Amino acid sequence: MTTLDTLPNTAPQTGSLPPAADQALPQVKPLYIGNVKVDPPILQAPMAGFTNFAYRQIVRQFGGSGLLATEMVSARSFVWLAEHEAESPERLWGVKEEARPLAVQMWDNDPDTLARVGERLANEYQVSVVDLNFGCPVKDLTEKAHSGSYLLKFPDRVGAIIERVVKACAPTPVTAKIRLGCSHASINACEIARVVEAAGAAALTVHGRVASDFFRGSADWEKISEIKQHLKHIPLIGNGDLDSAAKVVEAFRRYHVDGVMIARASLGRPWLFAQCAAALRGDPIPPEPTLDEQRDWMLRHYELVCERFGEERGTLLMRKFACNYAQGKAGARHFRGAVGNVNTRFEFLAVVANHFPKQDNPQLFQPHDAAEPCEETCG
Ligand SMILES: Cc1cc2nc3c(=O)[nH]c(=O)nc-3n(C[C@H](O)[C@H](O)[C@H](O)COP(=O)(O)O)c2cc1C
């Protein structure tokens, strides 16, 4: 299996100059999802519980991502809320007002329910792209709701869903996000890719793991690359383990994807997209912001969360977002321990002032500071 970690690293590093002529950059063009131009072809991945309006605002301010996405929305809950004249799903916070392009992702297994919600997303919310989740491996979605990656076992069902949703959303493009298969014994991404395109989807994103892996092991980019020959017209977007500009350049150079999608690595480093975009252009890669600047971005993130949810709930929500900003830095564990107990704005600001990693206070880097998502996470 070829993963991005096993490749010789010939691509540019943070802060470095563009590569020499003999390591010419791949020719990367904007990609089109229907008539939506994704430029640069670097997509921000949907991440449940994280990629809300506040996070997306921060990503937009840095730039570098050609298409942003919401967290996945349950189509069934959306319909239920509408029938009970309740508010729209919380995960659609900010979507109507937000800049475009923006994709909203939804999940279910019922073509009619998905078509109903897709139609509202396209017409009432005027989103740029409607994305369908066929990749989530979490048991609540697969075993209980027979949705997400569970549907990869049923290519006909995947096709039926896409056909209905495409009709309901037209002319808004509909895309699909999948894993390689449900398990190593049942990898069927090439077959699913053909079904997805034949049913009228406008792009396919593939996370290069199988569902039973959750996040274990490495994404298999060779397998992602094989899918390309099964698509006639629509773009292939590769996803999995991209955490540096160098790896993004390698993904385009070696695996001939039309676009890449980045998830976990961008959570505490929303400037990563801008670094990747610069590398693809052949420009010098912007350096990591200083720790003080990173802290200030985190505080901006906090204000956006509080504006929406109020101070009490906003502070509780911010606990996990704040941990992402500290991840991988000296002292991150200590900060995590402290911020995990804050309940008020005063406490949050005090913990940030006293414990957010500082340049002049280096402690030993703990490799386990780099947290792994648990099996309850989606995707
Ligand atoms: C916390 C978390 C939440 C996620 N939520 C979603 C989601 O709502 N929809 C989805 O398609 N994938 C979801 N994913 C999967 C990511 O979009 C992505 O496919 C996966 O993390 C691999 O990319 P990466 O290696 O860049 O993180 C989630 C992943 C994480 C870590």
UniProtKB/TrEMBL annotation:
It comes from Anatilimnocola aggregata. Residues 1-21 are annotated as: Disordered. One of its GO terms (molecular function) is tRNA binding. FMN binds at P46, M47, A48, Q105, K177, H207, A263, R264. The active site is at C136. Keywords: Flavoprotein, FMN, NADP, Nucleotide-binding, Oxidoreductase, RNA-binding, tRNA processing, tRNA-binding. Its cofactor is FMN. Pfam families: Dus. The keyword Disulfide bond does not apply. This is tRNA-dihydrouridine synthase. It comes from the Bacteria. The gene is dus_1. Residues 1-16 have a biased composition (Polar residues). It catalyses: a 5,6-dihydrouridine in tRNA + NADP(+) = a uridine in tRNA + NADPH + H(+); a 5,6-dihydrouridine in tRNA + NAD(+) = a uridine in tRNA + NADH + H(+).
